[in-house]
Specification:
two-stranded parallel ribbon; 10% strand; 9 strands; alpha/beta
Length: 333
């Protein structure tokens, strides 16, 4: 990944367990004078705590760029929303309500609403240049962009060190989907936080036990890192992940074969990385593309000088300014 990028501009709290709280309930006091019945339907418009190896594809050397190679192709539309949670509840709200929510959370523009997910998920293959020696189509594909013509991107958040309740409330009220790739050593002090995130519709995926550089480990060590994390997530959250992201984006043939053996179906990497004050890009054009996966991390002010809310505001400025909506990765993969 290129290590330079363009700048983007850059607060709320958690809720008690229960059903998904409608955003109109949150805004009742704000909207009673302005829009009356706010729930009416309306048309709506790596890891910095250690030295990072070269990231993003096998055998990478510093300064290299793997290139594009993004396939394309639309799917048919599903008629309604998806699980878990009630994603796109915000789409049911009047534009004035969604605008008020965006203003409440400090967004310059109201986030665009993603289209319904494809009825048939696109066929995903390993991106050119990301293959492993001796690999074949039976291995989980490694990719940075989902093949779609929809103007959607996918937000993924790694590790799990910062457990900000404000993030849960913000993403729930704004109805911005994201996928969490968890490393157990970062989350095992508070599984409940991620259980609440899951209840609110966040998919919990595998990012290994201890975030090691996997190609430097033996087969047995890699298996423990990947498969034992599968077991822990299944035990703690009731669902075995099918998506896996190797730390730093580095892997080898053993990594993919082990991942396949313990239930992994796909290995999403990323095409852009978000920070509270800038984006870093994989592609030379330093832009978003339909289906791009955005990486960021659960970090707080102590690690990178901004809160998770600041991060979301920065990401959404980039995404919305460039005419994209955030969709749920698991609806396409």
């Amino acid at each position: 990944m290129k290590r330079h990028g363009t700048s983007v501009s850059g607060t709320g709290r958690g809720r008690s367990p229960g059903g998904h709280r409608p955003a109109c309930a949150v805004l009742a006091a704000l909207l009673v004078a302005a829009v009356g019945s706010g729930c009416a339907s309306g048309a709506g418009g790596e890891d910095e705590h250690r030295e990072r190896p070269v990231v993003g594809f096998p055998g990478a050397e510093a300064g290299t760029n793997p290139g594009a190679g993004r396939p394309g192709g639309p799917g048919q539309r599903a008629p309604q929303a998806r699980e878990p949670g009630e994603a796109h509840e915000n789409a049911k709200l009047a534009p004035a309500v969604r605008a008020t929510l965006a203003k409440k959370w400090g967004l310059e523009k109201t986030p665009l609403i993603a289209p319904p997910p494809p009825l048939v998920k696109p066929r995903i293959t390993t991106r050119e240049g990301f293959e492993v020696e001796g690999g074949d189509d039976s291995l989980p594909p490694v990719f940075t962009t989902v093949p779609t013509k929809d103007r959607v991107v996918f937000l993924t958040i790694d590790d799990g060190s910062d457990k900000d309740p404000e993030l849960l409330q913000m993403m729930d009220e704004l109805d911005i989907p994201y996928s969490a790739f968890l490393s157990d050593y970062e989350v095992n002090d508070n599984y409940g936080y991620f259980g609440e995130a899951q209840r609110l519709g966040v998919a919990l995926d595998n990012h290994t036990l201890t975030h090691p550089y996997l190609p430097g480990l033996s087969y047995a060590e890699q298996k423990r890192e990947i498969c034992h994390q599968q077991d822990i997530i299944e035990k703690q959250f009731g669902k075995r992940p099918v998506l896996f992201r190797p730390p730093y984006g580095n892997y080898n043939g053993d990594t993919l074969r082990i991942a396949r053996s313990c239930g992994i179906k796909a290995v999403p990497l990323w095409n852009a990385e978000a920070f509270p004050d800038h984006m870093e890009w994989r592609e030379e054009d330093e832009d978003l593309h339909p289906g791009d996966i955005i990486l960021t991390h659960f970090r707080g002010r102590g690690e990178w000088g901004g809160s998770m809310a600041d991060l979301v505001r920065a990401v959404m400025k980039t995404v919305t300014d460039r005419g994209y909506a955030v969709a749920r990765l698991e609806d396409y993969v």
